[in-house]
């Protein structure tokens, strides 16, 4: 892939997440929770941005762990973390409340990290059906499966 094509892909991904973060997330449909995700880790197996199935950055996967008082996200570069609550079908992570380690990685991985911070601070809706967690914003859906211990 040429440098131009790669940068265009990165820009498209960042732009999609920035636009998504600017829109207030709504919750629709059934938001019932079949189990408690606390203390569990989920791995993304599907990422859809603007209706297009989008792969994670090359050589990475997206992991979300629910900690005692928040979330931790690892996507191939830095670890992002912040206070979070789950209520009424919405995962709430206050804007400006996510921290991150400061590893220097490829631009593609760093762009993915920033896009995920924007996604999680947009307060996506969620559904939990058995071991499948689905997080949804107006433009992005991430389907995750509970990781085996």
Structure description:
The protein is an alpha+beta fold. The chain has one domain (3-146): Lipocalin (Beta Barrel). It is 23% helix and 34% strand. It contains two helices and eleven strands. The chain has helices at 3-22, 107-120; strands spanning 41-49, 52-53, 63-66, 70-74, 79-83, 85-87, 90-92, 98-100, 125-129, 132-136, 140-146. The strands form two sheets. Strands 1, 2, 3, 4, 5, 8, 9, 10 and 11 form a nine-stranded antiparallel sheet that branches. Mean pLDDT is 80; it is low at 2-34.
Give a brief description.
The protein has 149 residues and is of the alpha+beta class.
Strand proportion, as a percent range, falls in: 25-35%
The stretches of 5 or more residues where confidence is low (pLDDT under 50) are 2-34
The averaged pLDDT comes out at 80
Number of strands: 11
């Amino acid at each position: 892939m040429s440098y131009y094509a790669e940068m265009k892909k990165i820009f498209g991904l960042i732009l999609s997440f920035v636009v998504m973060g600017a829109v207030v997330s709504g919750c629709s449909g059934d938001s019932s929770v079949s189990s408690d995700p606390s203390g569990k880790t989920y791995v993304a197996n599907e990422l859809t941005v603007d209706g297009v199935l989008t792969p994670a950055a090359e050589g990475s996967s997206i992991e979300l762990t629910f900690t005692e008082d928040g979330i931790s996200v690892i996507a191939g570069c830095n670890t992002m973390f912040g206070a979070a609550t789950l209520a009424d079908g919405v995962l709430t992570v206050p804007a400006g409340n996510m921290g991150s380690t400061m590893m220097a990685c490829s631009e593609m991985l760093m762009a993915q990290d920033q896009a995920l911070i924007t996604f999680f601070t947009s307060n996506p809706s969620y559904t939990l059906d058995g071991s499948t967690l689905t997080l949804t914003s107006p433009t992005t859906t991430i389907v995750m499966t509970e990781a085996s211990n």
